[in-house]
Amino acid sequence: MLKRNLKKILITLSLTAFFVGCSTAKPDKTASAPKLSDANIAAIVVGANNIDISAGNIALKRSSNTQVKDFANRMIVDHKSVLASAVELVTKLGVTPVNNDLVFTLAEQSKNHEAKLNTLTGAAFDKAYIDHEVAYHEAVIGVIADQLIPSASNAELKALLVSVLPAFKAHLQHCKMIQKALS
Q1: Residue 183: how many CB atoms within 10 A of its CB?
Q2: Is there a domain that residue 166 lies in?
Q3: FRET pair for 53, CA 20 to 30 Å: which of 71, 74, 96, 117?
Q4: Which parts of 64-154 fold into alpha helices (H)?
Q5: pLDDT for position 118
Q6: CA distance linking residue 61 with residue 3, whole number of Å
Q7: What digits encode the pLDDT tens for the residues 159-173?
Q8: 44 is in which domain, residue-wise?
Protein backbone atom coordinates (compact mmCIF):
# COMPACT_ATOMS: atom_id res chain seq x y z
CA MET A 1 0.00 0.00 0.00
CA LEU A 2 2.77 2.45 0.95
CA LYS A 3 4.72 1.54 -2.19
CA ARG A 4 1.63 2.17 -4.37
CA ASN A 5 0.95 5.53 -2.68
CA LEU A 6 4.60 6.57 -3.03
CA LYS A 7 4.56 5.65 -6.72
CA LYS A 8 1.31 7.60 -7.20
CA ILE A 9 2.80 10.63 -5.43
CA LEU A 10 5.94 10.49 -7.55
CA ILE A 11 3.96 10.23 -10.78
CA THR A 12 1.71 13.10 -9.74
CA LEU A 13 4.67 15.25 -8.71
CA SER A 14 6.55 14.58 -11.92
CA LEU A 15 3.50 15.40 -14.04
CA THR A 16 2.79 18.50 -12.00
CA ALA A 17 6.42 19.56 -12.34
CA PHE A 18 6.07 19.14 -16.08
CA PHE A 19 3.04 21.35 -16.30
CA VAL A 20 4.04 24.14 -13.96
CA GLY A 21 7.76 24.16 -14.67
CA CYS A 22 10.65 24.79 -12.42
CA SER A 23 10.21 27.68 -10.06
CA THR A 24 12.72 29.29 -7.75
CA ALA A 25 9.95 30.42 -5.45
CA LYS A 26 9.10 28.33 -2.43
CA PRO A 27 6.04 26.21 -3.13
CA ASP A 28 3.05 27.29 -1.11
CA LYS A 29 -0.67 27.58 -1.56
CA THR A 30 -0.49 31.27 -2.47
CA ALA A 31 2.33 31.03 -5.01
CA SER A 32 1.15 31.43 -8.57
CA ALA A 33 2.46 29.25 -11.36
CA PRO A 34 4.16 30.77 -14.37
CA LYS A 35 1.80 32.19 -16.99
CA LEU A 36 1.59 30.01 -20.06
CA SER A 37 0.93 31.38 -23.53
CA ASP A 38 -1.89 30.00 -25.64
CA ALA A 39 0.79 28.41 -27.85
CA ASN A 40 2.29 26.67 -24.79
CA ILE A 41 -1.16 25.51 -23.71
CA ALA A 42 -1.82 24.13 -27.19
CA ALA A 43 1.43 22.12 -27.07
CA ILE A 44 0.56 20.77 -23.62
CA VAL A 45 -2.95 19.78 -24.72
CA VAL A 46 -1.62 18.01 -27.82
CA GLY A 47 1.09 16.23 -25.83
CA ALA A 48 -1.12 15.16 -22.95
CA ASN A 49 -3.82 13.75 -25.24
CA ASN A 50 -1.32 11.91 -27.43
CA ILE A 51 0.19 10.31 -24.34
CA ASP A 52 -3.14 8.89 -23.18
CA ILE A 53 -3.97 7.71 -26.71
CA SER A 54 -0.63 5.92 -26.97
CA ALA A 55 -0.95 4.26 -23.55
CA GLY A 56 -4.49 3.20 -24.44
CA ASN A 57 -3.25 1.54 -27.62
CA ILE A 58 -0.69 -0.41 -25.61
CA ALA A 59 -3.42 -1.51 -23.18
CA LEU A 60 -5.60 -2.75 -26.05
CA LYS A 61 -2.72 -4.93 -27.24
CA ARG A 62 -1.40 -6.19 -23.90
CA SER A 63 -4.40 -6.53 -21.58
CA SER A 64 -6.86 -9.38 -21.54
CA ASN A 65 -9.04 -7.74 -18.85
CA THR A 66 -12.33 -6.56 -20.36
CA GLN A 67 -12.66 -3.59 -17.99
CA VAL A 68 -9.11 -2.42 -18.75
CA LYS A 69 -9.59 -2.83 -22.51
CA ASP A 70 -12.92 -0.97 -22.42
CA PHE A 71 -11.31 1.84 -20.44
CA ALA A 72 -8.35 1.99 -22.84
CA ASN A 73 -10.71 2.18 -25.78
CA ARG A 74 -12.63 5.00 -24.06
CA MET A 75 -9.34 6.86 -23.53
CA ILE A 76 -8.44 6.53 -27.20
CA VAL A 77 -11.84 7.69 -28.43
CA ASP A 78 -12.24 10.56 -25.96
CA HIS A 79 -8.67 11.85 -26.19
CA LYS A 80 -8.72 11.72 -30.00
CA SER A 81 -11.89 13.82 -29.84
CA VAL A 82 -10.31 16.38 -27.50
CA LEU A 83 -7.19 16.42 -29.66
CA ALA A 84 -9.23 16.98 -32.82
CA SER A 85 -11.17 19.83 -31.16
CA ALA A 86 -7.96 21.43 -29.94
CA VAL A 87 -6.26 21.15 -33.34
CA GLU A 88 -9.35 22.57 -35.05
CA LEU A 89 -9.46 25.49 -32.63
CA VAL A 90 -5.78 26.39 -32.76
CA THR A 91 -5.88 26.15 -36.57
CA LYS A 92 -8.88 28.49 -36.63
CA LEU A 93 -7.11 30.88 -34.25
CA GLY A 94 -3.82 30.68 -36.12
CA VAL A 95 -2.00 29.49 -32.99
CA THR A 96 0.94 27.18 -33.57
CA PRO A 97 1.71 24.98 -30.55
CA VAL A 98 5.08 25.90 -29.06
CA ASN A 99 7.00 23.08 -27.46
CA ASN A 100 9.40 23.85 -24.68
CA ASP A 101 11.55 21.88 -22.26
CA LEU A 102 8.44 20.96 -20.29
CA VAL A 103 6.77 19.31 -23.27
CA PHE A 104 9.95 17.34 -23.98
CA THR A 105 10.09 16.23 -20.33
CA LEU A 106 6.55 14.92 -20.50
CA ALA A 107 7.36 13.08 -23.73
CA GLU A 108 10.40 11.47 -22.10
CA GLN A 109 8.37 10.42 -19.04
CA SER A 110 5.74 8.93 -21.34
CA LYS A 111 8.38 7.05 -23.32
CA ASN A 112 9.73 5.54 -20.08
CA HIS A 113 6.24 4.61 -18.86
CA GLU A 114 5.38 2.97 -22.18
CA ALA A 115 8.66 1.04 -22.16
CA LYS A 116 7.73 -0.30 -18.73
CA LEU A 117 4.19 -1.18 -19.85
CA ASN A 118 5.62 -3.10 -22.80
CA THR A 119 7.50 -5.39 -20.40
CA LEU A 120 4.43 -6.32 -18.35
CA THR A 121 1.66 -8.82 -18.90
CA GLY A 122 -1.49 -9.99 -17.16
CA ALA A 123 -2.49 -8.56 -13.81
CA ALA A 124 0.84 -6.71 -13.43
CA PHE A 125 0.19 -4.85 -16.68
CA ASP A 126 -3.40 -4.03 -15.77
CA LYS A 127 -2.39 -2.68 -12.37
CA ALA A 128 0.48 -0.58 -13.73
CA TYR A 129 -1.67 0.85 -16.51
CA ILE A 130 -4.65 1.71 -14.30
CA ASP A 131 -2.55 3.03 -11.40
CA HIS A 132 -0.78 5.36 -13.82
CA GLU A 133 -4.10 6.45 -15.36
CA VAL A 134 -5.42 7.39 -11.92
CA ALA A 135 -2.35 9.45 -11.07
CA TYR A 136 -2.18 10.96 -14.57
CA HIS A 137 -5.82 12.05 -14.58
CA GLU A 138 -5.56 13.50 -11.07
CA ALA A 139 -2.54 15.55 -12.14
CA VAL A 140 -4.07 16.65 -15.45
CA ILE A 141 -7.34 17.74 -13.81
CA GLY A 142 -5.42 19.90 -11.36
CA VAL A 143 -3.25 21.40 -14.08
CA ILE A 144 -6.19 22.16 -16.36
CA ALA A 145 -8.13 23.82 -13.54
CA ASP A 146 -5.26 25.59 -11.82
CA GLN A 147 -2.86 26.39 -14.67
CA LEU A 148 -4.22 26.08 -18.19
CA ILE A 149 -7.64 27.67 -17.75
CA PRO A 150 -6.33 30.69 -15.80
CA SER A 151 -3.46 31.13 -18.29
CA ALA A 152 -5.52 30.91 -21.47
CA SER A 153 -5.80 34.31 -23.12
CA ASN A 154 -8.24 33.35 -25.84
CA ALA A 155 -11.85 32.91 -24.71
CA GLU A 156 -12.48 30.00 -27.09
CA LEU A 157 -9.39 28.14 -25.86
CA LYS A 158 -10.45 28.76 -22.27
CA ALA A 159 -13.96 27.48 -23.07
CA LEU A 160 -12.53 24.32 -24.64
CA LEU A 161 -10.44 23.66 -21.54
CA VAL A 162 -13.45 24.22 -19.27
CA SER A 163 -15.58 21.93 -21.43
CA VAL A 164 -13.16 18.97 -21.19
CA LEU A 165 -12.88 19.00 -17.38
CA PRO A 166 -16.05 16.96 -16.75
CA ALA A 167 -14.83 14.23 -19.11
CA PHE A 168 -11.44 14.08 -17.38
CA LYS A 169 -13.20 13.83 -14.02
CA ALA A 170 -15.40 11.03 -15.37
CA HIS A 171 -12.28 9.25 -16.65
CA LEU A 172 -10.75 9.54 -13.20
CA GLN A 173 -13.81 8.06 -11.50
CA HIS A 174 -13.94 5.25 -14.06
CA CYS A 175 -10.28 4.29 -13.65
CA LYS A 176 -10.57 4.49 -9.84
CA MET A 177 -13.47 2.04 -10.06
CA ILE A 178 -11.33 -0.32 -12.15
CA GLN A 179 -8.38 0.19 -9.79
CA LYS A 180 -10.57 -0.87 -6.87
CA ALA A 181 -11.80 -3.94 -8.76
CA LEU A 182 -8.22 -4.93 -9.58
CA SER A 183 -7.13 -4.71 -5.93
Answers
A1: 10
A2: yes
A3: 96
A4: 66-93, 101-117, 122-143, 149-151
A5: 95
A6: 27
A7: 999 999 999 999 999
A8: 36-182
Backbone angles phi, psi at 59, to 5 degrees: -60, -40
- The gap from C-alpha 133 to its chain's centroid, in whole angstroms, comes to 8
The pTM assigned to this predicted structure is 0.79
Distances (CA, A) of 78 to 21, 22, 65, 69: 27, 30, 20, 14
Residue (of 15, 16, 33) closest to 24 by Cα position: 33
In a domain, 56, yes or no: yes
Measured in degrees and rounded to the nearest 5, phi and psi for residue 98 equal: -115, 110
Q: Report the CATH number that the domain containing residue 135 is assigned in CATH.
A: 1.20.1260.10
Residue 36: how many CB atoms within 10 A of its CB? 24
Q: Classify residue 60 by burial, with Cβ atoms within 10 Å: 0-12, 13-18, 19+.
A: middle
Q: Picking from 3-7, 32-36, 42-46, 171-175, which range would have the lowest pLDDT averaged per residue? A: 3-7
112's CB contacts (< 8 A; 6+ apart) are: none
Q: Do residues 160 and 41 make contact, with C-beta atoms less than 8 angstroms apart?
A: no
Residue 9 lies in a domain: no
